[in-house]
């Protein structure tokens, strides 16, 4: 299973996939030389994604997950057309939207980066599947740097999260969608701060369930008794990335540097 992101935040998706399907091997690619994708043009994002998907196909991946909201919002259609006939390419948006839409909530909150909120992709996709659901969105730009610096489960993170989600606009929401691959790390903290019956969803768990279902439907599940082998690639390697990797994946991994595009 190929999984890629603009950085190492997508390792939360990789972690969910590994826990859901422990017999499957994964190949992860973090495009750390070009992060973040959120401030890049759509054409540039598509070019980066095309190179990464080509690399993952060369590695023999049977399905590829775009573990990045910016890439998912910008490059899904392009990649699916460009690599038609190849492995299925799954974004992080559709599985989460499908899971939430099944419940026909009257009001749903969405928190994400400025780029994702600005794209309005979650409003559009939820409107298609659950037109009666009111979607209330909020850009939460401080959460990603806060998490990457290791500030969570403490007074600082509590104050920032509380400031975002304890706003009047979210008073009546029945569900909250965490639409950034960094946010699963603060999911429990968000639940504690909400302190009321709000169903909190994240990309990682929804994507893992979706991928497992697709593999089962297409008879692509790995039934080999051999132990899985996981490989992790990044386009730029620094001590900071190695330290951050442990936060998102939950344990130390060996990162290999692989340059796909110079710029």
Describe the protein in words.
By secondary structure, the chain is an alpha/beta fold. Helix content is 44%, strand content 16%. The chain has helices at 11-20, 42-58, 69-82, 93-101, 114-119, 121-129, 143-148, 155-165, 187-194, 203-217, 239-249, and strands spanning 2-5, 27-30, 63-66, 88-91, 107-112, 134-139, 175-178, 199-202, 231-234, 255-257. The strands form 2 sheets. It has a 6-stranded parallel sheet with strand order 4-3-1-2-9-10, sandwiched between helices. Helix 1 links the parallel strand 1 (2-5) and strand 2. 41% of the residues are buried. The model has no long low-confidence stretch (mean pLDDT 93).
Task: Please state roughly what percent of the residues sit in beta strands, choosing from under 5%, 5-15%, 15-25%, 25-35%, 35-45% or over 45%.
Answer: 15-25%
Task: Based on Cα principal axes, name the global outline.
Answer: globular
Q: Describe the biggest sheet?
A: 6 strands, parallel
Share of helix among residues? 40-55%
With strands numbered from the N-terminus, the spatial order across the biggest sheet is: 4-3-1-2-9-10
Number of strands: 10
User: What string gives the helices and strands in order?
Assistant: EHEHEHEHEHHEHHEHEHEHE
Poorly predicted regions are none
Structural class category: alpha/beta
> In angstroms, what is the radius of gyration?
18 Å
Average pLDDT, rounded to a whole number, is: 93
> Roughly how many Å apart are the termini?
26 Å
Number of helices: 11
